[in-house]
Hints:
The structure holds 2 protein chains of 2 kinds.
Chain A: H1 13-44, E1 53-54, E2 57-58, H2 59-82
Antiparallel strand pairs in A: 1-2
Helix pairs in contact in A: 1-2
Chain B: H1 3-28, H2 34-40, H3 47-58, H4 61-74, H5 76-83, H6 86-106, H7 112-120, H8 123-156, H9 160-208, H10 212-222, H11 238-247, H12 256-259, H13 268-299, H14 309-317, H15 320-358, H16 364-386, H17 393-417, H18 423-447, H19 457-473
Helix pairs in contact in B: 1-9, 1-15, 2-9, 3-9, 3-13, 3-15, 4-5, 4-13, 4-15, 5-11, 5-13, 6-13, 7-8, 7-17, 8-9, 8-15, 8-16, 8-17, 8-18, 9-13, 9-15, 9-16, 10-13, 14-15, 15-16, 17-18, 17-19, 18-19
Amino acid sequence: xxxxxxxxxxxxxxxxxxxxxxxxxxxxxxxxxxxxxxxxxxxxxxxxxxxxxxxxxxxxxxxxxxxxxxxxxxxxxxxxxxxxxxxxxxxxxxxxx
Amino acid sequence: xxxxxxxxxxxxxxxxxxxxxxxxxxxxxxxxxxxxxxxxxxxxxxxxxxxxxxxxxxxxxxxxxxxxxxxxxxxxxxxxxxxxxxxxxxxxxxxxxxxxxxxxxxxxxxxxxxxxxxxxxxxxxxxxxxxxxxxxxxxxxxxxxxxxxxxxxxxxxxxxxxxxxxxxxxxxxxxxxxxxxxxxxxxxxxxxxxxxxxxxxxxxxxxxxxxxxxxxxxxxxxxxxxxxxxxxxxxxxxxxxxxxxxxxxxxxxxxxxxxxxxxxxxxxxxxxxxxxxxxxxxxxxxxxxxxxxxxxxxxxxxxxxxxxxxxxxxxxxxxxxxxxxxxxxxxxxxxxxxxxxxxxxxxxxxxxxxxxxxxxxxxxxxxxxxxxxxxxxxxxxxxxxxxxxxxxxxxxxxxxxxxxxxxxxxxxxxxxxxxxxxxxxxxxxxxxxxxxxxxxxxxxxxxxxxxxxxxxxxxxxxxxxxxxxxxxxxxxxxxxx
Lengths: 97, 481
């Protein structure tokens, strides 16, 4: 198993891009979960009397869900604009129309 | 019932009907072969339509009726849970992503099962997958039809049977003759209506409640737990709510109706646009609809049937014509889910069963008529089933959801990214996923949630282990993509 055979050149370079982008998806989801969980249960576990209210909403909810949503949308836009690469979906060798 | 409400709703139904028919016309002049065109829209979706058809297919009766109704009862804890769904906006497309699009084209796959069959080079995988899809999505579809019938019934005062009939006719015609493209284009319109309806109703309920701080004070006066993450009776634990990250978050990757959309787009540019639009639109709909559910509580106390909260609220706080437009949103959500499921079940029967196993050499022309025929007959069967409505709409819906996720998430995801995944792993994973889902479902019903998490959690873990062990134990061999 551990012998690294020279199969590298046969791997489609587009797959490298695809694999990297899938990991970005995993990373975004993990970040999203930590943010969501941290604010919801970190702030939300206090007694209700200690809650403060932002735009009328309880603070834990405002940070976890409202800010979390805006932030993750911004991150997705950033990733799409600066990190994702355009690739052709057609088979190589075929002339794309 | 108020005529002012009915006119916008009727206009909506007629508009969808007409748009569906117009989109069908283009489908008749297929250049990529009938099957690709009918079941996959010729892989030509642009970014906006792709995003909208994913959001609209995913957003269903439970996003607009059942979910906000539960938020009404439970409070902010349920809004927190619903917000998880933002992740589906980017996760499905990023994970399946470009690899699925490339391999889908390479294998000439029209359905998710085509992909599985080619990847694992196995008819057994295909049959098993087709059975799972037909059974589970059939139950999901029936639940949605019942929701559609109920909604028309409660808005118009017509009999349930008549309401269901109106609903069936408005959906069936364009799905049967227009196929995937008609479904996607109507989804785009329906998605836009869902967003507009959500925003209008949110503004309406905030005004009616005297502003957000006033609403919050009313909630605190009634029961302070309503504004905590733990639910009105304190029973929503962090572990339970977090386990929904699988069911309505990352697990959505395994849903065939979502996966097939991840093969349908034209270019990577379309996919990139859809990532942004899909995330934002999903977030707006899910966050706001469920907030509306909570805000409705002080405005209209004492509603006992969860599904009625949103319709009653719209009629109460909005002028009639505006309520009609807002209530077109849940209708749109239901229609856009139903049309996708109907076409998917039809594709499983026509492409994955009939063409794979019964008559592989069928002519293009006969395939065309069989596709129309199967879709039509399926629609009629669902209509007849929905006449005897099963009681718990959200229950059936979630059962189908979780079962399919447990069955398909690993065969699809690991099939794409793990070269040692093979058919033994895939078969073991699907069987383990479904069987353990059903067993744990009944265990949880009887004894309370095992480990305090949602039913889907353990089957997804087990099906992962089954996939890895199955693949490594028998004929370990690297797959060349």
